[in-house]
Amino acid sequence: MIRVVxxxxxxxxxxxxxxxxxxxxxxxxxxxxxxxAEAVRRAHxxxxxxxxxxxxxxxxxxxxxxxxxxxxxxxVKVLVLTTFNVDEYVFEALRSGxxxxxxxxxxxxxLLRALTVVAEGEALLAPSVTRKLIEEFANRPEHRRxxxxxxxxxxxxxxxxxxxxxxxxxxxxxxxxLVISPATSRTHVSRVMTKLGARDRAQLVVLAxxxxxxxxxxx
Length: 219
What we know:
- Pfam families: GerE (PF00196), Response_reg (PF00072).
- Residues 147-212 form the HTH luxR-type domain.
- This is LuxR family two component transcriptional regulator.
- The chain is α/β, with parallel strands linked by helices.
- The protein has two domains: 2-125, 3-Layer(aba) Sandwich (Rossmann fold); 142-210, Winged helix-like DNA-binding domain superfamily/Winged helix DNA-binding domain (Arc Repressor Mutant, subunit A).
- It has eleven helices and five strands, in the order βαβαβαβαβααααααα.
- It has helices at 11-22, 36-46, 62-72, 88-96, 108-119, 127-138, 149-152, 156-166, 171-178, 182-196, 201-210, and strands at 2-7, 27-33, 50-54, 77-82, 100-103.
- Strands 2-1-3-4-5 form a five-stranded parallel beta sheet, with helices on both faces.
- It is globular and about 50 Å long.
């Protein structure tokens, strides 16, 4: 059972999501929130698997709430909802620990799949759109970071694996590309996450772009 908290300042939006999840096996809505501060309280109260978080809310917005939840409750995943597919607030949410994002007009089936993927820890949904967003914002001068010391501590193979994660490859795809076993691929990804202090693959992608290990594709 995937336990979900819905955070959106529009009651009708929350009602629609609740109706969808209540009619599906394997999902339970354990709380709702109309702003970011309430979302943080509900996350602490219910310890859900996933918080579905709207970014633009009055008072404490979804970005601040995402940052607080990810810092205080690392076991709780945050799935950001937005009306725009290239949105600097979404990029900041990914930097703050959000596991991925979806557009608000996404197909209901895709939302269910996204919740399942995030709850399982895979993260980085809609990789082509997410990479476009990260490429757009991570390489702006104000977002560039020097090569972190931890990144320099990665082995050559681990840096290669990080670049493939940033390219949107799954563990199985990485295994096939490098001609290694899926178990070895998972081990490499896990070690990279540990060394870089990343909570999931989404943060690995942000780090790969911000550090300059991966550069945006042109054209």
